[in-house]
């Protein structure tokens, strides 16, 4: 849905500014946000509203892509599809064990401690002539782009696909891992925020810093306009 302009024709509630709305099927309702123009430049406020709409449109498109893939993938695998048959993207659980650092274990205390961590992977699996294969590519270690390259290359070599540029071009958006994290956590996992791919965390941090800077500039403009 579009951005509603109430800068000239005032909203029945008396609001003057821009209203951004977008329907999300996952939430079964419209999201909306209001951007008032009082004491601000209309062009700057419009730009802020357009940026939010663009962000929501991208998020909605990821959801739609995920729903479309659900129709062609088996239910147990549908949350992890990448667009390339045989390659999934998901968080894989690892159990780490370590010995107690205490010189002498206290009565009733375990000598071995375990911890669970989740790591984002591209998982390549399938079978050739009845022989199954599976290999995982660690995105935290390799980086998102290199892990995708290695996953596609391994799949192509295993299936003897000579030309696979079209498969490389189907690289999924890294933002999809946030949707996957939410989905897996709803299934009972406990994946922490910092286990997302590093590139995604850095991109989101940059956007957050830019938003904070923009907010500070906006507050300064309002302060000066009130002087």
Task: Give the helices and strands as they follow along the chain.
Answer: EEEHEEEHHHHH
Which bin fits the share of residues in helices?
40-55%
Shape: extended
Q: What's the quaternary structure here?
A: single chain
Number of discrete domains: 2
Strand portion, in percent?
Answer: 25-35%
Structural class: alpha+beta
**Total strand count, please?**
6
Distance N to C terminus: 38 Å
Low-confidence stretches: 73-77
Query: Mind describing the biggest β-sheet?
Result: 3 strands, antiparallel
**If you compute it from the alpha carbons, what radius of gyration comes out, rounded to the nearest whole angstrom?**
24 Å
Task: Identify the strand order in the major beta sheet.
Answer: 1-2-3
The number of helices is 6
Structure description:
The chain has 227 residues and is α+β, with helices and mostly antiparallel strands. The chain folds into two domains: 3-70, no CATH class; 78-196, no CATH class. 41% of the residues lie in helices and 25% in strands. It is built from six helices and six strands; from the N terminus they run βββαβββααααα. The chain has helices spanning 42-70, 139-142, 144-158, 165-168, 176-186, 198-226, and strands spanning 3-5, 17-24, 29-36, 87-99, 112-128, 131-138. The chain has a three-stranded antiparallel sheet with strand order 1-2-3, with helices on one face. Strands 4-5-6 form a three-stranded antiparallel sheet. A hairpin with a 4-residue loop joins strand 2 and strand 3 (29-36). The longest helix is centred in the first third of the chain and has 29 residues, at 42-70. The radius of gyration is 24 Å and the shape is extended. The two termini are 38 Å apart.
């Amino acid at each position: 849905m579009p951005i509603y302009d109430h800068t000239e024709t005032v909203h029945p509630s008396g609001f003057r500014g821009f209203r951004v709305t977008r329907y999300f099927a996952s939430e079964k309702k419209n999201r909306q946000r209001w951007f008032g123009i009082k004491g601000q430049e209309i062009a700057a406020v419009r730009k802020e509203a357009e940026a939010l709409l663009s962000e929501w449109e991208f998020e909605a498109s990821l959801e739609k892509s995920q729903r479309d893939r659900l129709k062609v993938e088996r239910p147990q695998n549908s949350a992890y599809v990448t667009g390339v048959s045989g390659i999934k993207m998901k968080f894989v659980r690892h159990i780490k064990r370590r010995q107690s650092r205490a010189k002498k274990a206290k009565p009733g205390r375990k000598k071995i401690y375990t911890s669970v961590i989740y790591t984002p992977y591209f998982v390549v699996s399938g079978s050739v002539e009845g022989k199954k294969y599976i290999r995982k590519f660690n995105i935290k270690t390799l980086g998102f782009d290199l892990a995708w390259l290695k996953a596609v290359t391994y799949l192509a070599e295993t299936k003897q696909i000579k030309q696979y540029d079209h498969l490389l071009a189907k690289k999924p958006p890294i933002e999809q891992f946030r949707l996957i994290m939410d989905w897996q956590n709803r299934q009972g996992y406990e994946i922490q925020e910092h286990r997302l791919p590093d590139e995604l965390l850095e991109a989101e941090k940059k956007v957050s810093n830019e938003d904070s800077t923009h907010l500070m500039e906006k507050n300064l403009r309002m302060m000066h306009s009130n002087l």
